[in-house]
Amino acid sequence: EVQLVESGGGLVQPGRSLRLSCAASGFTFDDYAMHWVRQAPGKGLEWVSGISWNSGSIGYADSVKGRFTISRDNAKNSLYLQMNSLRAEDTALYYCAKGPRGSCYPYYFDYWGQGTLVTVSS
Amino acid sequence: DIQMTQSPSSLSASVGDRVTITCQASQDISNYLNWYQQKPGKAPKLLIYDASNLETGVPSRFSGSGSGTDFTFTISSLQPEDIATYYCQQYDNLPPGFGGGTKVEIK
């Protein structure tokens, strides 16, 4: 059974940093692209970033480009999101999601974790 | 960015009813369109990919159709467990974008 378990969320002041983690199990992690998708409270879904199986292809939404960095450690079956210069508008539930292939394309998400909440507030 | 417009934003229907949700893209996206179900307090779940392909394990009462700019998602016979918000998502162009969602309730 595919399991994705996010951690690392919390309350952080504007301008500060936070690192999210996603522990994957139940599938061959290094065969698949992985993504972060977020959902602001009471709002819709927004793709944040994606990374291919070998980290050779990485993409970001314009809203986070230059501030967030996605990475993965295939030896640890883990996905990460380093979030710097956080803003109030980054407040959201952050989901880790698995892609259907090793490349980021096609950009859809066949399994999702339960999310970790990031709140940016002073 | 490609804009995805879903309608209606919410609907109320009776158990057993046929429910239809539409999604319109701001430009041609071929069949690069997916549908997700998000139950209250839960993560989204992929139901349909590439406009009309049912994800493994998804009940056959769910279906999707369309290509180009206009897409339809249908629940052939609404069940109580289908109460959720449904999202369309395009991946023809980056960034992959979602529609605003359709909240489905039982009348």
Task: Tell me about this structure.
The complex is a heterodimer of chains A (122) and B (107). Chain A has 122 residues and is mostly beta strands. Chain A has strands at residues 3-7, 10-12, 18-25, 34-39, 45-51, 58-60, 68-73, 78-83, 92-98, 111-112, 116-120. By secondary structure, chain B is mostly beta strands. In chain B, 0% of the residues lie in helices and 50% in strands. The N and C termini of chain B lie far apart (36 Å). Chain A binds chain B through residues 37, 44-47, 59, 61-62, 95, 100, 105-115, and chain B through 32, 34, 36, 42-46, 49, 55, 87, 89, 91, 94-101.
Helix-strand blueprint:
The complex is a heterodimer of chains A (122) and B (107).
Chain A: E1 3-7, E2 10-12, E3 18-25, E4 34-39, E5 45-51, E6 58-60, E7 68-73, E8 78-83, E9 92-98, E10 111-112, E11 116-120
Parallel strand pairs in A: 2-11
Antiparallel strand pairs in A: 1-3, 3-8, 4-5, 4-9, 5-6, 7-8, 9-10, 9-11
Chain B: E1 4-7, E2 10-13, E3 19-25, E4 33-38, E5 45-49, E6 53-54, E7 62-67, E8 70-75, E9 84-90, E10 97-98, E11 102-106
Parallel strand pairs in B: 2-11
Antiparallel strand pairs in B: 1-3, 3-8, 4-5, 4-9, 5-6, 7-8, 9-10, 9-11
Please indicate the percent range of residues of chain A in DSSP E strands (runs of 2 or more): over 45%
Return Rg of chain B in Å: 13 Å
Greatest interface and its residue counts? A-B, 21 and 21 residues
State the helix count of chain A: 0
Describe the sheet with the most strands of chain A: 7 strands, mixed
Number of strand elements of chain A: 11
Rg of chain A, please?
A: 13 Å
Structural class of the helix and strand makeup of chain A? mainly beta
Low-confidence region ranges of chain A:
none
What is the chain-wise order of helices and strands of chain A?
Answer: EEEEEEEEEEE
Q: Detail the poorly predicted runs of chain B.
A: none
Mean pLDDT of chain A comes to 97
H-E order of chain B: EEEEEEEEEEE
Distance between the termini of chain A: 40 Å
